[in-house]
Amino acid sequence: MKPAPPPTAALPAGADERAARERLRGLQRRRKLVILFASLAVALLIPFLRSLGDWNGSLHETVEAVGLAAIVLCILGRAWCALYIGGRKANRLVTEGPYSLSRNPLYLFSFLGAAGIGAQTGSLAIAALFAVGAIAIFRPAIQREEAALQTIFGQAYEDYRRRTPRFGPRLAAWHDATRLEIHPQALYRTIADGLVFAALVPLFELVDWAQAAGYLGVVLRLP
């Protein structure tokens, strides 16, 4: 395995770089709004969805349990990413830790969380639809973020892009930082954002009960 490249220091900001940094910060703020609105859309949609696995209660419960594990992994994974990049994404090119495996590990864990939320219906198909939907929603933002990073960091980012997959993960490329500078507020914000995934779980349980009791009609059943 090749030796890890040295960390890239913050670069002096020209006019283009300053504009790119502002775009990047704006994209990060809009990403949080997208997560909020997507969560509201899910909350409105789930009362009308149900799994075909109801005939086999153990299958339904297993899918839910695996989905819950995915949500927990999503929250922990996002916090892990925040240890490396929290508060410094627009100022320093982070290529260590989870960012040595994937250019977008924070999004990767979010997609896992979306699948976990879908799995709370007990349906593997709905879990897959939620993951694909999350990818479709965030892909344009990812592309714009990468364009901004290319402007800010230039050749250093181009080299990083060539050796690191957009999602991955490429496990053979792992290398870690010798020291981490942690930004507590950024870490707390990332954890709070991730808890949105967990907050939807009780809602699914309530909907499950209401459907079983006949209080809510089911429009769509999927395997």
Outline the structure in words:
This protein is mainly alpha-helical and 223 residues long. The protein has one domain (15-222). Helix content is 66%, strand content 3%. The longest helix has 31 residues, at 15-45.
Task: Itemize the secondary structure elements and their pairings.
Blueprint: H1 15-45, E1 49-51, H2 57-85, H3 98-101, H4 105-119, H5 124-153, H6 155-163, H7 184-212, E2 220-222
Parallel strand pairs: 1-2
Helix pairs in contact: 1-5, 1-7, 2-4, 2-7, 4-5, 4-7, 5-6
Protein name: Sodium:proton antiporter
InterPro entries: Phopholipid_MeTrfase
Subcellular location: Endomembrane system
Main beta-sheet strand count, sense and barrel state? 2 strands, parallel
Described by its quaternary structure, the protein is single chain
Q: Strand order, main sheet: write it out.
A: 1-2
C-alpha end-to-end distance = 43 Å
Q: How many structural domains?
A: 1
Number of strands: 2
**Structural class, from helix and strand content?**
mainly alpha
Task: Please name the defining characteristics of this protein.
mainly alpha; 2 strands; 3% strand
Brief overview:
With 223 residues, the chain is mostly helical. The protein has helices spanning 15-45, 57-85, 98-101, 105-119, 124-153, 155-163, 184-212; strands at residues 49-51, 220-222.
